[in-house]
């Protein structure tokens, strides 16, 4: 279908304003969403000098059938709207702002006597969410600390005032072992319980000074009352919190609240690290990669992913630290620090993103090596074992098949890159040899095969394998000599009894280690050739017996019998055919004779 999109006409309707544009295909589906500081200039760039676009952008332009746009006050508003529309429509030419992984959150519920739970589903009506936590170990360390510091309930009971007042619930084991203060029986005041929950909120926000002040105050109050055991318990909690603070990633309280987002990329993907810093603490961090769809610049991707990360992690800071500046006006200050604590933050983020990129590249290389080198490893081993000059990526193997000298046939199987290439398999019916003569038969089929290869200009194999010992190998070499190919293609014979490998003009065989992968590959190729030859032999023998059966009919010879089998495919189909159907192939007189023969046979 030709592109019916009139770009000049449509561009005349587009204003020089900031906004978001949407491209639709012939099925009226959104295929791309983009933002722009100047809509007309940006949209026009797709249709002016289109021959300079990369392959992916050319494919996008070729599928555009309709254009829509939305004008917004600022470029920042365009970025926010673009983010929402990409999530809504998920256009195939856009980078989809989502992760295959679902990371968990810590949620503090809105219930009476709130709980602290983990969840992968976010419902803002249920509670206040912190996260997501890309590092599960860090999340569980936090939860363990909360259990040690506070006595927060873990049950799912509905602790409404009515239920508690009516005595509907009884304290459980958690109360008796000191992990819960028993709000289900009103053994703790709601105000005291919520004071602890408030401490959890502060810690998750990265504000440790308030919980520390709270524990210190409680410790001193207990000491003044001479309640030294209680004071010691508060001191233990304060030390636990101090220990957590020492282990937490702290840059400097002077840094305050900032977002850090760094990016490096190659032609295929971009790699990013995001860090949310609150009061100088790194409270959330995630490193990830995204696959490019079009030729997106690092500046475009950084702005796009900044919106996504701030929405995911609840970022509200007024400053972004990055290694590049986005090419649009953000509602926050963008800093590329050169010295000081902020430079340390930038270096930490860049170290993470570079390590992640390196790790991804290594993993991909290992996967490619595992896939490629598994076959290459065997071929390299085979090359070494057989002392070949090149990797045997293309191997052809021949086998003869005859039973008691009848219907002699041969088969050739082909392996490429260590795997069967069945479209290149070939069958041979022996034409010049009378009786069971394996040596002469092998010479015939090898000669026929490579005579045809030379005539048609096809590629010669890297290795020829002959199923048989010195006799079959010598006959095959004679065929190659007659074609002028001897010495050009490596050829070996494999004898079945002891799996001996024979080379031309060498009386002593080679014995490859029975556990060697290279021998197993040769055996696999040899067995496949044998299977293929046997199958063909059985088919041919079966067909011969059917022809012989039909020759019992008066007036039916080999040619007519073969003609019937070719048309009806089986003896049963011939037997069940009507005289009229048979007459179409062999004439009315012979058709009646065939029909009468099978009726007589059925009556006996």
From TrEMBL:
Q: GO molecular function terms here?
A: DNA binding; excinuclease ABC activity
**UvrC family homology region profile domain residues:** 264-480
Annotated Gene Ontology cellular component terms: cytoplasm; excinuclease repair complex
Where in or outside the cell it occurs: the entry states: Cytoplasm
Entry similarity comment: Belongs to the UvrC family.
In Swiss-Prot or TrEMBL terms, this protein is called: UvrABC system protein C
Record SUPFAM superfamilies: C-terminal UvrC-binding domain of UvrB, GIY-YIG endonuclease, RuvA domain 2-like
Q: Which UniProt keywords apply?
A: Cytoplasm, DNA damage, DNA excision, DNA repair, Excision nuclease, SOS response
Q: Fetch the Gene3D superfamilies from UniProt.
A: 5' to 3' exonuclease, C-terminal subdomain (1.10.150.20), GIY-YIG endonuclease (3.40.1440.10), UvrC, RNAse H endonuclease domain (3.30.420.340)
Q: Which InterPro entries match?
A: GIY-YIG_endonuc, GIY-YIG_endonuc_sf, GIY-YIG_UvrC_Cho, Hlx-hairpin-Hlx_DNA-bd_motif, RuvA_2-like, UVR_dom_sf, UvrABC_protein_C, UvrC
Which GO terms fall under biological process for this protein? nucleotide-excision repair; SOS response
Q: Tell me where in this chain the GIY-YIG domain is found.
A: 16-95
| Subunit and partners | Interacts with UvrB in an incision complex.
The organism is Rhabdobacter roseus
Question: Which domain of life does the protein's organism represent?
Answer: Bacteria
Role: The UvrABC repair system catalyzes the recognition and processing of DNA lesions. UvrC both incises the 5' and 3' sides of the lesion. The N-terminal half is responsible for the 3' incision and the C-terminal half is responsible for the 5' incision.
Q: Record keywords: Chloroplast included? A: no
């Amino acid at each position: 279908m030709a592109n019916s999109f009139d770009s000049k006409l449509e561009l005349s309707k587009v204003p020089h304003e900031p906004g978001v544009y949407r491209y639709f295909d012939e099925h009226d589906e959104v295929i791309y969403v983009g933002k722009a500081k100047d809509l007309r200039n940006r949209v026009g760039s797709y249709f002016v000098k289109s021959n300079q676009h990369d392959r992916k952008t050319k494919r996008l332009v070729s599928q555009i059938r309709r254009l829509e746009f939305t004008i917004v006050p600022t470029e920042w508003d365009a970025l926010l709207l673009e983010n929402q529309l990409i999530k809504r429509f998920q256009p195939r030419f856009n980078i989809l702002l989502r992760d295959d992984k679902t990371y968990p959150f810590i949620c503090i519920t809105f219930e009476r006597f709130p709980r602290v739970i983990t969840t992968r589903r976010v419902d803002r009506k249920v509670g206040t969410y912190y996260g997501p936590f890309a590092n599960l170990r860090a999340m569980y360390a936090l939860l363990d600390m909360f259990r040690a510091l506070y006595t927060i309930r873990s049950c799912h009971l509905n602790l409404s005032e009515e239920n508690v007042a009516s005595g509907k619930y009884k304290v459980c084991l958690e109360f008796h072992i000191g992990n819960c203060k028993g709000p289900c029986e009103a053994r703790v005041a709601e105000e005291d319980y919520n004071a602890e929950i408030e401490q959890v909120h502060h810690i998750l926000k990265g504000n440790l000074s308030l919980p520390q002040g709270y524990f210190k105050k409680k410790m001193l109050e207990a000491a003044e009352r001479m309640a030294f055991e209680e004071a010691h318990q508060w001191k233990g909690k304060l030390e636990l919190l101090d220990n957590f603070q020492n282990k937490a990633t702290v840059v400097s309280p002077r840094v305050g609240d900032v977002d850090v987002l760094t990016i490096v990329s190659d032609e295929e993907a971009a790699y990013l690290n995001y860090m949310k810093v609150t009061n100088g603490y790194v409270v959330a961090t995630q490193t990830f990669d995204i696959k490019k769809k079009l030729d997106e610049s690092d500046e475009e991707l950084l702005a796009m992913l900044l919106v996504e990360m701030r929405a995911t992690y609840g970022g509200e800071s007024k400053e972004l630290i990055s290694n590049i500046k986005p090419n649009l006006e953000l509602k926050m200050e963008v800093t590329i620090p050169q010295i000081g604590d902020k430079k340390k933050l930038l270096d930490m983020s860049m170290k993470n993103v570079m390590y992640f990129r390196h790790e991804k590249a290594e993993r991909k290389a290992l996967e490619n090596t595992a896939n490629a080198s598994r076959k290459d490893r065997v071929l390299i081993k085979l090359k070494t074992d057989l002392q070949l000059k090149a990797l045997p990526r293309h191997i052809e193997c021949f086998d003869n098949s005859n039973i008691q000298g009848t219907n002699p046939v041969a088969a050739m199987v082909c392996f490429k890159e260590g795997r069967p290439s069945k479209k290149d398999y070939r069958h041979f019916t022996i034409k010049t040899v009378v009786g069971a003569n394996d040596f002469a038969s092998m010479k015939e089929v090898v000669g026929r095969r490579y005579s045809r290869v030379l005539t048609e200009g096809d590629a010669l194999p890297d290795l020829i394998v002959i199923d048989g010992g010195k006799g079959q190998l010598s006959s095959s070499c004679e065929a190659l000599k007659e074609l002028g190919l001897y010495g050009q293609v490596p050829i070996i014979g494999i004898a079945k009894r002891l799996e001996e490998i024979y080379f031309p003009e060498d009386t002593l065989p080679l014995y490859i280690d029975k556990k060697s992968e290279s021998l197993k590959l040769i055996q696999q190729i040899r067995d496949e050739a044998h299977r293929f030859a046997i199958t063909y032999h059985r088919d041919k023998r079966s067909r011969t017996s059917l022809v012989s059966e039909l020759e019992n009919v008066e007036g039916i010879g080999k040619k007519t019998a073969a003609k019937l089998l070719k048309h009806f495919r089986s003896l049963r189909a011939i037997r069940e055919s009507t005289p009229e159907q048979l007459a179409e192939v062999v004439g009315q007189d012979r058709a009646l004779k065939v029909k009468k023969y099978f009726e007589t046979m059925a009556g006996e």
